[in-house]
Amino acid sequence: MTTTTRTAAVTGAVGAAHVRVEGYDKVTGAARYAGDIPFADLAHGWLALSTVARGRVLAVESDAVLAMPGVLAVLHHGNAPRVDGEYMSMLGPPDPALQVFQHDRVPYVGWPVALVVAETSEQAREAAEALVVRYEEEPHDVAFSAGRPGMYTPEDSPDMVAEKGDVEAGLAASAFVVDEEYTTPEEHHSSMEPHAATARWDGGRLEVVDSNQGSMWVADELAKLFSLDAASVRVRSEHVGGAFGSKGVRPHHVAAAMAATTLDRPVRVVLTRRQMFTVTGYRSPTAQRVRLGADPDGRLRAFDHQADCLTSTVKEFVELSAAYGRVMYEADAHRTVHRVVPLDVPTPTWMRAPGEAPGSFAVESALDELAEKCGVDPIALRVRNEPAVGPVSRLPFSSRNVIACFDEGARRFGWAGRDPRPGRRREGRWLLGTGTAAATYPSGVAPSTAAVTAEADGTYTVRITAADVGTGARTALTLIAADALEVPPERVRVRIADSDFGPAWVAGGSMGTRSWAWAVTTAAGALREQLALGGDIPAEGITARSDTTEAVARLTQKERHSFGAQFAEVAVDVSTGEVRVRRMLGVFAAGKIVNPLTARSQFIGGMIWGLSMALHEEAVRDQATGGHVGADLAGYHFAANADVPLIEADWVDDPDVDDPVGIKGIGEIGIVGAAAAVANAVWHATGVRHRHLPIRPDRVLSAGAPAEGDGDA
Questions:
Q1: Domain residue spans in the chain?
Q2: End-to-end distance of the chain based on CA atoms, in angstroms?
C-alpha cells in the first residue's frame, strides 16, 4: 500500500500548445499500425472483387487455386459461414455490403465475391488474381445527372426537406435573382494507411486488431453479424493513419472473421489502394440547383437549394448538401430539398464534412454571384443576411461569431484594398484574383463512457474507447484530463481505441473530442471527490467511471455549430489554364481550442483538402464497365506538396457559457467553404464563373478568359 498526495493545483494545460504524446513513437517507428502488428501462425486473406457491374455469380472455380503453393482456403457464397442480416447496430440497420458471401447477386463492380487465404500475402494475392469467377451479366446503369429518371426524395427522414415561407413568391418579388446549377464529382478519402484488419479467436472471444474510427462500433456490428454476445468480441485500433469517414465496418472485417473461424488461426486482410476505391465508400457526386432572390441592397427574400446525389441499389445513403444553408443565411422564405437516385455503384458514405463540403461550394458560389449582381461587397452581403436565430429552426445559437471571423480575416488578408472588378490584376501571363466564403459545421455531442484511475505511483490512467485517426485526439484528452485532475499532463496516460473500455462515440461528425472530453472530465471529477476523502491508494489504484447519457439528454436545445471565414488568392495562366493558389487564410470560431498546435494542423489540413477539391479531385466512372477509370493515386489526382501554398489558420474567441464542455468540433470545418473561396477567386481573376468542380485547365481554357493585355498590369 502506498500513500500518494496530489501536488498543488496545476491548471492551464488546455489552450497551451503541446506536441503529440505519441509523436516520438510515430517518428521512430515504434507505433505499429494494424497491418504491421505480428501474430503467431498468421494467415493472409486477399479479397477477389467482381468485375461486372450487375448480375450474379455462376461459378467460383477454386480447385486450381487451392492447389497453388500456400493456399489454405477459398471462401465464397457457396461455403462461407452464415451471418445475421436483421439487426440494429449503434448506428442503425446493417449495411447489406457486410453480408459477405451470403448470396450470388452482384450489385456493382468491386463487390466481394471470394476471399483467398494463404500462408503469405504474396501467395494470397497471386491466387486471388488467378481465381476464375464466372458471371451471368445483366445491363447496368451508373450514369448520374441532375433530375434523371428514378430520382426521389426519401420520406422517412426529417433531414430531407425543410421549408419556411413562399419561395416562389419571394423570387418573383426580388430585384435580383441567381438561378444556377453547381456540380461536384465523386470524391474519395484516400487515407495514407490502407484499411486492414486481423481477426483471431482467443479463449472463446473474437479479437480484431483494426484500423478504424470507432472500436466499439466495429465490435457491436461484428457481434450482431455473427450472433455473439457483446462481451465475446474485442476490437482494438490504437494507431490509425487517416480515416475521414471511410474507416467504419467494412467487408474485410467480416471476411477476416469468417476465415479465422474457418481455419482456427489468425487471418489478416489488407486492402490495396485500388480495392479501397470500391470497398470503403466515397463522396457521391452532386448536382445542386441554387436559387437566390434579393432586394436591391442584397437582403435575401428567397433561398432555395435543391441537391441531387446518387446511392447504391443495396443501401440508401444521401449526401445532405442542402443542409448547409439552413443555418447560414436569413431569408423571408427558405426551401431545401434532397433527392437521390439508386444506381449500380457502391454505396457512398460519410466523407470529411459530409453535406457541408459540397453544399458550401454551391451556396457560397451563388452568394458571390448575387454580390456581383447587386454590386455589394461579398463580405458585406453575407453580413447583411446574418441571422439572429436559426433561419429555419428559429432556435437560438449557442454562439455565432461569423462576423468576427470575417472582420479578422479581412484585416489580415488585405481585403479592404481589393478592386471588386474581375480580371484587373495581372503579373505577366498570370491573372490574379481573391475570393472568400463562409464556413459552418455542426457541433454535436453523443453519450460516452470513460474511466479514470489514480495509480499508486502518483500517475493517472484514462481509459476511453476514443479513436485518434491522426487528429491529435489522444493528446487533447491528455490535456483535458490533466486540467480536470489538476495535475501536469506528464502524470496522465490516456489509453484509447479498445472496445473493452466501454461505449463511446466514434471519431466522426466533429463530435469525438467534445463527446469524449465530457465523459473524461465527469469521471475525473468523480475521482477527485473520492481522493478528497484521503487514505491509501491500493496497488490496483482507485477508479471512477462516468456515463454522460443522461447529461447529454438534458442539454438545452440550440443551434450548435462551428463557424469560419475562408480567403484565397489565385493566379490563372491565360495560356495553359493552370490555376495556382498563392495563399489561403481561414479564421474560425470553434469554441475552446484544446491544443493550438494540433488544432491549427486540423484546420490547415481541411483547407488543403478544399483546395484539392476545387482544382484536382475527380473520380471518373467508365459507363461501359461501371468501374473506375484510374482507381489509384496516379489516376485520381489530389493536391501534392507543390500545389500547396502558404496557408494560415487562426481563430477568434468563441465562448459558450451555456455549454458544460465548451469544445466544438474542428476536424471538418476547415474544408467547408474552402473550394468556394478558390472558385470565387478564379472568377475574380478571370471574370469567368466556374460552377463545376474541379476547375481543370481544360475547363478554364474552354470557358475563355480575358485576352492577353486586358486588365491592369
A1: 23-31+446-552, 43-139+190-279, 396-443+555-713
A2: 79
Would you say the pTM of this structure is higher than 0.90?
Answer: yes
The domain over range 23-31+446-552 is classified in CATH as 3.30.365.10:
yes
Distance CA 71, CA 354 (A): 41
Q: How many CA atoms lie within 13 A of 572 on its CB side?
A: 37
Q: In what side-by-side order are the strands of the sheet with 300-312?
A: 161-164, 333-343, 300-312, 286-294, 176-184
pLDDT tens readout for residues 574-610: 999 999 999 999 999 999 999 999 999 999 999 999 9
CATH class of domain segment(s) 396-443+555-713:
alpha beta
Architecture of domain 43-139+190-279: 2-Layer Sandwich (3.30)
- Reported as a pLDDT band with limits 50, 70 and 90, residue 8 is very low
pLDDT, tens digit (0-9, with 9 covering 90-100), for 130-183: 999 999 999 999 999 999 999 999 998 889 999 999 999 999 999 999 999 999
Is 119 considered catalytic here?
no
Of 187, 369, 372, 668, the catalytic one is 668
Question: Which regions of 295-427 does DSSP assign to beta strands (E)?
Answer: 300-312, 333-343, 425-427
d(CA 342, CA 163) in angstroms, rounded, equals 25
- At residue 1, the pLDDT reads 34
* Mean pLDDT of the residues in the chain: 95
Distances 177 to 168, 172, 296, 331, 370 between C-alpha atoms, Å = 11, 9, 10, 13, 7
At 653, list the grid cell: 474567441
